[in-house]
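If your schedule permits, I should be very grateful for your opinion on a structural question. I have a record of one protein: its chain in single-letter code and its fold written as discrete structure tokens. Kindly check, if you would, that the fold set down in the tokens agrees with what the sequence suggests. I remain grateful for any guidance, and I place the record below:

***
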Amino acid sequence: MVINTILSAISYNYPPEKLNVYLSDDGGSEFTFYALFEASNFSKYWIPFCKKFNVEPRNPEAYFAHVINDNADLSQELLDIKKKYEDMKNRIESAITKGRISKEIRDKHKGFSEWNVDVTKQNHHQSIVQIIIDGKDRNAVDKEGCQLPTLVYMAREKRPGWPHNFKAGAINALIRVSSEISNGSIILKLDCDMYSNNADAIREALCFFMDEKRGHEFAFVQHPHWFYNITKNDLYSYYNHVIHKLELAGISGYDAALYSGTGCFHRRESLSGGKYSKDYIGNKDIETKKNDQRSVHELEEASKVLANCSYEKNTQWGKEMGLVYGCAVEDIVTGLTIQCRGWKSMYYNPERKAFLGVAPTTLDIALVQFKRWSEGMFQIFLSKYCPFIYGHGKIKLGAQMSYCVSLLWAPMSLPTLYYVIVPPLCLFHGISLFPKASSLWFIPFAYVFIAKNVYSLFEALSCGSTPKIWWNSQRMLIIKRTTAFFFAFIDVIIKQLRLSQTAFVITAKVVTEDVSKRYEQEIMEFGSSSVMFTILGTLAMLNLFCLVGGATSKMVVLREFGALENLISQVFLCGMMVLINLPVYEALFFRKDNGCLPFSVMFKSIVLASVACLIMPIIQ
């Protein structure tokens, strides 16, 4: 996955002498270095192939999976390049399986000597900077004799007792190292699981930075997050067309596009703490250290110092320079601080998606990711970086409010939980919360509900969604708010009370074959006894019990049809929740595969829902 991302970035349609690709390996693994070394050799064949046949996408794995071999000239070369790729892939996998790099391979590059007795653990090793391809070396050419881009491996120093500040710390170290080696004016930041899907993405982004009227104002150009493994009906609502095509574009209208971490082109000066002023002219030339006469070894040694643990001590890195530390969503808060220094930002959603990533294929992993995002964003709202406080007088009020739409995901769990718990329980015990259907006061409630959902559906359809995709998004909205967002809210409150510390949770990307098969069939993957699933199951059973015990009992057993007029709103809400939770009922009672909910979750859900139904009369 990482190597395919590198190969897609190193083969852009852009002058190679101006293209410098860096890999930050926070694990400090010699296998990652070896894989990058193999990729550097493969790139000598891959780049000419891409340019000759105008290949898209330039991720080899993705290209070979979808290429239609109907070109006679392409046919033989395609087979040759695919064989080279498979050979490279097999060599890397073989080395990982054996657990060692052979001496024959080690002798091919001096960089392997970095992994010696001093490199023992992922969190205890020296700085490693290796220039694998030196773009200034006239001998660094592909098979056609064309110059290759610079390719650099970096693993920042890690020592016990020194804070490494997670992903933000790694990116800041990479910013410093790249400034020493190439110092390009524009930086593209890509996560390892997201590859370039448009070979002209750099040129398109530069159009914003080099615009004669406003180019000098822009700090970054953010592309939306699209995913290549989304199911037909977007099972876990990761595509969310409305957010990508309307909401994020609307925020950009205030010159305050959200920085969302990956797929973003940054002006180096803005990331390095520079402030924008009306007198700022900007440098439209993409200048690099092309006249630097230092040797590769000298550049590597100078760069290692910048990646040391102690380098940031008593500096503004993590505060006014680079990505901001202390938050699980360092990208959002960093974008805000950049905008508050006077810079503007642009959201760009081209017709051809510039970058594609991999979305979680299980509900458990998806909820963990949403929890981390919502937790980090709520932390920002409660910190000094709250847009209404930190951004007051610096960014527009509309931008401040737009930020808060995302920052308040976590507390939105509370009203949602109220509506999925209280109305059903009141229905179960015959307590009316809304006006009866024959009352004029019923009209406003009905209007709000119908108008909101009709408009939401229309909005989704206008953005290219389908009714099924919209329905899945409504289901996931309820699931996220009642589980991930709720736990995020609790965790943030606990941290505000200084009872725990911020932790960075990494989401897994590798899944088994049976999980992938169920995902392709759009079957929700549960498969664990997570406390989130216990809550999900409990709420599903609660609404089912209340619908059956409340509405059905009055109609069938007590024959109190008139009483239902007072409870019609609650019957409808409860019925909607039952429909939304159909996949949960299937996982609880009918499915027998590994993705179903365990018996322990079913037992706890039934018990908790039953207790909730019985305990309300006692409270009354």
Notes: The longest strand covers residues 128-133. The CA atoms of residues 529 and 598 lie 6 Å apart.
